[in-house]
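Problem 12. The chain below contains 132 residues. Write out its predicted structure in token notation.
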Amino acid sequence: MTEARQMQIGEVAERTGLSLRTIRHYEEVGLVIPSARSKGGFRLYTAADVDRLMVIRRMKPLDFSLEEMRDLLDITDRLATSDDAPTGEERERLRERLDSYRKVADARCETLRARLTMAEDFAATLRQRLEH
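Solution.
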């Protein structure tokens, strides 16, 4: 088995579009933990860590709080685990919680679409006024 390629924080920032400061903040609050540290103490991330940061990045525009992000990531981590995977009632409870977050995300997306439509209408109004 080959070892997963590890990246330093600068490459991770480039890949995710997040700032170094944001990535460090997400580490401080426990949303993502680097997979390793170099001998010199530098944070080292894997592709799985980058994927996790991308999930966090996608939650941000939907105004999920840090606590909601942490809970949602815990749910998905628990459902994805192969060691001591949840079964029966616990699995169903986790899936119900995940579905409630999906419903919140869907509703927030709809709100954002409505706001975007209003903003585009406003921009069109300004363009029309400039033409006259």
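Discussion. Helices lie at 9-16, 20-28, 47-59, 66-80, 88-131. Students who got a different answer should revisit the alignment rule from Section 12.3.
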